[in-house]
Amino acid sequence: MQLPAEKTYARKPRESLQSLLGRVLFYVLLFLLLFAILAPFIWMVISSISPPQELAATPPNWIPNEPTLERYRALILGPTQGQSIPIAAEKFVRALTSSLIISSTVTLICIIAGAGAAYALVRLPVPGKQNFMFGMLAAQMMPIIVIIIPLYLVMQTLDWMDTWHGMILLYSGFMLPTVIWIMYSYFQTLPEELEEAAMIDGCSRWQALLRVVMPISGPGLVAVAAFAFLYTWNEFFMALIFTASKTKTITVIVTEFSTQSGIDYGLMMTGGVIGSIPPLIIALLLQRYIVAGLTAGSVKG
Q1: pLDDT in tens, 258-273
Q2: Does residue 78 lie in a domain region?
């Protein structure tokens, strides 16, 4: 009767050692993952406040000896007397304003049009509903490079090149299928009995949508709003092709921070830090709602 007990006691230290090694390995991998994600952003912030001499030093200084905020002041308030910055940097505030206007308008259009279209596809007897949904999905899978020339010709014919409304129309068209798919899955999880009860009480279909469905669809609407804003804010390729001077976005203007002596990497990093602030604020403030909205349609019932 003693042998089984001895084997059990001998097995426990081995199991605890394996558990300890497993936890150590997990935390090491977690640290490496966090470092890979955060290191580029941390280096971007450090580069934005480092003097040119320290920025070009080898090996690089992770902690600048003489940090400076002159680049931030030059981009936001303009260069001081005697300070030389690239011509494109003087248009940074306008590009930041352009990005805010385009991204906010696209987000608003996607919420209104996308939610309305998704609700109609879920609740109304739309002919060819499934074919329409899969058609949108197939269109989303097409690379933008394939249709960029036809889009360029259309925009040129309509005289919408380098205009806010032209960029808003382009981004809205590319974002709406994704928004409709997300909201379509979300609306399927909502009980139809709530709308039927509202319509029995005298509400029309539109009133039921606005007074019943929309208030309880907050997580889904917040998720698609954040997704649409972040996509539009970070998009580069179409902004590079369809903007020239008036409506250049922040992603394009930052790439033009160069002078006769070369690229001003410090100023470019400063523009990157400023440009990343709105997406970071949205992601941090709405993180809970984004996760809830994107996962709500994963389980139907």
Answers
A1: 655 567 788 889 999 9
A2: no
Supply the range of the domain harboring residue 113: 87-296
- Report residue 241 CA to chain centroid gap: 20
Q: Which alpha helices (DSSP H) does the chain contain, by range? A: 2-49, 52-55, 70-77, 92-109, 115-123, 129-140, 144-157, 164-188, 192-200, 205-208, 214-216, 218-234, 237-242, 250-253, 265-285, 287-296
> How far is residue 101 from each of residues 58, 72, 165, 168, measured CA to CA in Å?
41, 22, 10, 9
pLDDT, tens digit, 9 for 90 and up, residues 27-81? 999 999 999 988 889 989 998 998 888 887 777 778 888 888 888 988 888 777 6
Among residues 145, 126, 246, 239, the alpha carbon closest in space to that of 184 is found at 126
> How many other CB atoms sit within 10 Å of the CB of residue 128?
8
- pLDDT tier for residue 229 given thresholds of 50, 70 and 90: very high
For 262, the 3-state DSSP assignment is: strand
Q: Within 10 Å of residue 8's Cβ, how many Cβ atoms?
A: 9
* Number of domains the chain contains: 2
In a domain, 79, yes or no: no
User: d(Cα 118, Cα 214) in Å, to the nearest integer?
Assistant: 12
